[in-house]
Amino acid sequence: MSISKRKLRSAEWFGTADKNGFMYRSWMKNQGIPSHAFDGRPVIGICNTWSELTPCNAHFRKIADHVKRGVYEAGGFPVEFPVFSNGESNLRPTAMLTRNLAAMDVEEAIRGNPIDAVVLLAGCDKTTPALLMGAASCDVPALVVSGGPMLNGKLDGRNIGSGTAVWQLHESLKAGEIDLHQFLSAEAGMSRSAGTCNTMGTASTMACMAEALGVTLPHNAAIPAVDARRYVLAHLSGSRIVEMAQEDLRLSRILTRQAFENAIRANAAIGGSTNAVIHLKAIAGRIGVPLALEDWTRIGRGTPTLVDLMPSGRFLMEEFYYAGGLPAVLRRLGEHGLLPHPGALTINGKTLWDNVREAPCHDDEVIRPLSRPLVPDGGICVLRGNLAPRGAVLKPSAATPALLRHRGRAVVFETLEHYKERIADESLDVDANSVLVLKRCGPRGYPGMAEVGNMGLPPKLLRQGIKDMVRISDARMSGTAYGTVVLHVAPEAAAGGPLAAVRDGDWIELDCEAGRLHLDISDEELAARLAECPAMPAPADGGYRKLYVEHVLQADEGCDLDFLVGCRGHAVPRHSH
Ligand code: FES
């Protein structure tokens, strides 16, 4: 057993032979914990987002058990604790509303407890950024163990991807190409094991982002949830975090500007979700690293997308792992000088390049060589213009190339409810060249910034065989979704952004190459229309939602709450005994 020489944070609770030490230890001993657990060994928090209401994380107790084995083996004392689990599939109105609530929970749970270092068990979309945000605000030694993706979905003998299959089958249903029985038969086959969405959706993207940031052991992102190697990785992570506590290897040494630049480049190479733009900004804000939307253009654009995964490509996370996972991608980037900072430190004490320099690639179809990329110019396209003065984003790899430069007349939906009322109206004045505009689905407007930006096309156009149209909103889009979809328009309509002023029939110009999003009306007309737009009423129901709406930042700022940005450290709070 190795016991740290360094005075650990937990000694402030357990390290004294007085009344306070007695109280802290005595109550813990009611769990059957022996005295030697309090002899100065590192106390390792295991921050668990397990919940049966978050099906993607429902196997996390087993993962926690394997982390504990590793912690014990390395001479640490593991303590598992729950935090708010915001699961994407069940939580209404959107799990994004509570990402910051979960981050607050994580931060205060770490700071207020006798924890020297923490293992963050994350999986479903928002749980990864929430845990990293909370831990970053404390700046303790921390690493992430992801839950891993589900096995490939199956329908009629072919692979189907989480989420992506839903969007595709629903469009086919509306177009009359399949019947309800066929639609519903996909349900069980799509989600047939524990784990997160098996496409390169937001959960997989954020797991890759964590690995590219250096806050996980290599291969964390892609090992399937039910693969025994996922549990080996959890075990090894448990051992490693004990060493990190002893080394005082805090997040601020890992989550550097260099690490975020590596992650942005990696996002382009994997064809990652647009949600990463918001989450990386929020995490960076917590650790004090400046990150701008233009960084996504500067670092991400021009990077070839190598990973051929749905929704942009053909394969799923299982194949990605068998092909070599993120280490193989990073190696390919690095060998061509495309890894911005190969020397960035990672949680195992090695550099990112040391971790991946010999990573093999076993399948050039899943992880393409640079000579044959899925998309030559991947990344996230950042747009600006009079319709999005503070920016908007679009994922070119998920879009129709011919629509990336487009001029069309707006068909406007004032709210999501208005869209639902109107979209199936056979008399709706819309054609394939129209631009669908959806308002008041941003962080304040929805509230929580719904994943509805990839609004379904009008059924009458689907029946004509139209598969894609330009869509613009202040909403987000599921990472499993696709289309020529402009998202995250900032400022949002509910915050007085120009999107609020768009009217049916207005001409809108989209030019991805030039990074331009333009509403073709005069400045005077725009100002006059905005002056007439009604102010958003305060939320009537109070509670967390009121706090959120009053303090949430816009998409370009990461949608954190304004008072949560920054690192507040891990100084031990006063005790009250
Ligand atoms: Fe949880 Fe997709 S719904 S990862």
From TrEMBL:
Q: Which domain of life is it from?
A: Bacteria
* UniProt keyword terms in alphabetical order: Iron, Iron-sulfur, Lyase, Metal-binding
Is Metal-binding tagged as a keyword? yes
Task: Give, as one word, the top-level EC class.
Answer: lyase
Domain (Dihydroxy-acid/6-phosphogluconate dehydratase N-terminal): give its ranges.
41-355
The catalytic activity of this protein is classed by the Enzyme Commission as 4.2.1.9
One Gene Ontology MF term? dihydroxy-acid dehydratase activity
PROSITE patterns for the chain: ILVD_EDD_1
Q: Which family does it belong to?
A: Belongs to the IlvD/Edd family.
Q: Return the protein name.
A: Dihydroxy-acid dehydratase
Q: Show the taxonomic lineage.
A: Bacteria, Pseudomonadati, Pseudomonadota, Betaproteobacteria, Burkholderiales
